[in-house]
Amino acid sequence: MYFRCLSVIAVLGSALQAGPETLRVCASTDNLPYSNQKAEGFENRIAGWIAQDLHLKLDYRWTEARKALGENGLDPEICDAMIGVPTGLPSVWTSKPYYRSSYVFVVRKDHKAHFESLADPELEQARIGIHIVDDSYAPPATFLARRGLAANLVGFSLFGDGRETNAPARLIEAVAHGDVDVAIVWGPIAGYFAQKSAQPLEIAPVSPQEFLGIPFGFSISVAVSKGREALGSEIDNVLQRRCGAIRTLLHTYGVPTVSGDVSPCENPSQSSSAASSFRH
Q: Could you report the average pLDDT of every consecutive run of 10 residues in the chain (280 residues)?
């Protein structure tokens, strides 16, 4: 998720002035399960609900997911909101979280080992697939490197070569084909592409959920520019009203959730049991 959360916008082309009846949303063109230009992602759906409930016309400002959200946050001259950023990101105002997920293990159901802990001794004999971006591995690799398992890691580019679609799926496909024994993947990516696999796959959350101050789980919100708190409050109200639909949407897309911050779309009474129902 580190890369999903921190590698989210680089606007293509100059921005046009938008009217007051428009909600401009920064979104990625080829980034399922989140968004694409065909509006097939679950973040496309959430953006549509927000615009509909606020009686605004939805205007996408298409972006390239590999570029980082800048320290200055969202440019108010370009977009009003972005769906799917880590709650509390300092450079922007963020809504209450509407789900929380974590990195997960992905294995074939017929594999002899089923992992739950990054400290599992069986990982010492495993080929471990993990996403990389800009020559850096996803955060759980830090834990594995401390265990002396750097040589076990097999890197897969999160964004591919720029010419392929659904590049994150290559890692899930590698598990299905037996090219790696296990993958460690950000939950929404794992759940979405695993449920599309012809080879039955199983996912389970990694533990621990944090190491050396590096989190492996994140709560997710909608972001607006600082100074646009009034818009943010309206978005919070939409998320509250739509929480049942959002829960159903996430389930449909295979997004695994874990307990954590009580969000507008999380039942507090179910929070403690969320992890136990995580395994697919």
A: 40 40 92 95 98 96 62 79 92 93 97 93 97 90 96 93 88 98 98 97 94 93 92 96 95 90 52 39
Question: If you ran DSSP here, which 8-state letter would residue 275 be given?
Answer: G
Token pair for residue 127? 């080929």
- Asked whether the beta carbons of 1 and 130 are under 8 A apart, the reply is no
pLDDT at 70: 62
Question: Of 3.40.630.30, 3.50.50.60, 3.90.110.10, 3.40.190.10, which CATH number belongs to 2-99+217-277?
Answer: 3.40.190.10
Q: For residue 29, what are its two tokens?
A: 């063109």
Which of 128, 133, 103, 87 minimizes the C-alpha distance to 203? 103
Which residue ranges make up each domain of the chain? 2-99+217-277, 102-215
C-alpha neighbours within 13 Å on the C-beta side of residue 3 = 27
Identify the bridge partners of residue 106 per DSSP, sorted by sequence position.
Answer: 183, 203
